[in-house]
Amino acid sequence: MPANFTIRPATATDAGVILAMIRELAEYEKLAHEVVATEDALRDTLFAPGSCSAALVAERDGQAVGFAVYFRTYSTFLGREGVYLEDVYVRPEHRRQGVGMQLLAAVAAEANRLGGRLEWAVLDWNQPSIDVYESLGAVRHAEWLRYRLTGEPLAKLAGRAREERQAK
Prior knowledge:
Number of domains: 1
Number of strands: 5
Radius of gyration: 18 Å
Order of helices and strands: EHHEEEHEHH
Strand order of the largest sheet: 1-2-3-4-5
Distance between the termini: 65 Å
CATH architecture: 3-Layer(aba) Sandwich
Strand content: 15-25%
CATH superfamily: Gcn5-related N-acetyltransferase (GNAT)
Helix content: 25-40%
Shape: globular
């Protein structure tokens, strides 16, 4: 069970390997059809100057074995910034060796530095991840329902803002 790995901040040169692992994660989650990201898109957004997003890469012997992508949030109740963990992924052959835990710990350190909280979502069928999260003391907030707008419904709602501005 080798533990010789490092965690480091990702850079724009990591866009290709991060995208490859995003695709691997999407396959695992049965969501490969939803991945439309490109290397250029990652370079232009995740690594853009002033981006509120950040990424970490876990490496072993110079090879990327995992990643975490997160972004800063704000809690009005706490009056503080926090962190939302968008994705954490470790390639299958490197799991159960502490890599994922160290990625989580590094993201938690950022949330702790900000004084806020660390939040994330997990698919309801992903019991191995749920078990890990609950073993850390994470609390499931079943009373909160997560919503998402994309595509045409998002464009339609955004159009209301344009209509309001034009009406004034």
